[in-house]
Amino acid sequence: MLQRVFSKQGKLNFQDENGLFIHSQFDPEKEASRFWYSIKQETLNEEILIWGIGAAYLLESIFHDPNGIKKIFAIEPILEIYEDELVKKKFHP
Questions:
Q1: What does the DSSP 8-state code read for residue 26?
Q2: Which residue in 4, 3, 31, 27 sits closest to 17, CA to CA?
Q3: Which of 41, 71, 74, 84 makes an SS bond possible with 50, Cβ 3.0 to 4.6 Å?
Q4: What is the pTM of this model?
């Protein structure tokens, strides 16, 4: 079972029953941006699959990149995240 929590900067995060966080406890947006730019060159002009969107920070990094991926397939297997109202707001403002 996951619990909704917030990073030290007030950003949405999730924590499991073992105390592990889905995203950075400090700056999940920066974490996602760094990850995207570390793999960007290998994925340009490709279709990618993201397994587990979490709070969608990686998707936001890709969407805000003018040279980002054109086709993204995103799957969130954890029902608690998929149904979380704050995550839904990112896709249906």
A1: S
A2: 3
A3: 74
A4: 0.84
